[in-house]
């Protein structure tokens, strides 16, 4: 991800947040990224760096659908790859652009050309009533995730067995050391906040000033 792209990020979600919001596990996210099935749109080329995989809200919407298809309806990954190929003309957010259904572990959609429900890969018409894929209130879930106790803002905490016992910004899993690294690299408070939209200005300042006495 380029520096300009980073500075234009309005809403970026970490792998852990994506798992909580969509149900797709971190392990699945990394596998899908590595195999080019679904890559985060806000990722750094160097995936080894901290928080290298960041996901947009559009990514979340697609992943919510993929979770319903793969993890809840048990549609095979091989079939989903074929569906992705068939829907490639819809772009990167094909999964959330059209209403999808599942029948006998196959993905169905409303074909606008025939005005009927068809199995995407084979093109066969469907006579049975398929199960509609429902994504739920994603925006409400995002708002709830970002809602922190006001008393935690601007504070640092450390819990045994949590994030390797490292000091983190209270109410989050974001290590203080990561914020310090950005600051040392020349990032301003505002630029760091764009990297971590869930944080308050006071969180960033507290992390930069924090001195670990342990």
Task: Describe the protein in words.
There is one protein chain. With 214 residues, this protein is α+β, with helices and mostly antiparallel strands. It has 10 helices and 6 strands. A 4-stranded antiparallel β-sheet has the order 3-2-1-4, with helices on one face. A two-stranded antiparallel ribbon has the order 5-6. Strand 2 and strand 3 form a beta hairpin. The longest helix has 16 residues, at 57-72.
Strand order of the largest sheet: 3-2-1-4
| Number of separate strands | 6
End-to-end gap = 35 Å
**β-sheet strand percentage:** 5-15%
Using the CA coordinates, give the radius of gyration: 20 Å
Order of helices and strands: HHHHHHEEEEHEEHHH
Classify the helix fraction into a percent range: 40-55%
Helix/strand layout:
Blueprint: H1 3-7, H2 15-22, H3 26-34, H4 57-72, H5 77-86, H6 94-97, E1 100-103, E2 106-111, E3 116-119, E4 131-132, H7 138-146, E5 156-157, E6 168-169, H8 176-184, H9 189-195, H10 201-209
Antiparallel strand pairs: 1-2, 1-4, 2-3, 5-6
């Amino acid at each position: 991800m380029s520096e300009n792209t980073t500075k234009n990020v309005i809403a970026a979600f970490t792998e852990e947040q994506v798992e909580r919001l969509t149900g797709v596990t971190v392990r699945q996210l990394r596998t899908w990224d590595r195999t080019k099935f679904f890559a985060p749109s806000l990722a750094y080329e160097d995936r080894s760096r901290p928080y290298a995989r960041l996901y947009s809200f559009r990514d979340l919407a697609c992943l919510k659908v993929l979770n319903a298809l793969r993890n809840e309806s048990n549609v095979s990954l091989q079939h989903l790859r074929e569906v992705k190929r068939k829907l490639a003309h819809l772009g990167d957010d094909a999964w959330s652009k059209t209403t999808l259904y599942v029948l006998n572990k196959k993905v169905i959609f409303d074909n606008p050309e025939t005005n009927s429900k068809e199995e995407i890969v084979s093109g066969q018409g469907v006579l049975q009533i398929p199960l509609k894929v429902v994504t739920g209130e994603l925006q409400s879930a995002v708002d709830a995730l970002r809602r922190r106790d006001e008393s935690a803002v601007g504070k640092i905490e450390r819990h045994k067995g949590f994030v390797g016992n490292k000091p983190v910004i209270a109410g989050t899993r974001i290590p203080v050391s990561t914020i310090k690294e950005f600051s040392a690299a020349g990032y301003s408070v505002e630029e760091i906040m764009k990297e971590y939209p869930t944080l308050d200005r006071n969180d960033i300042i507290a992390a930069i000033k924090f001195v670990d006495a342990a």
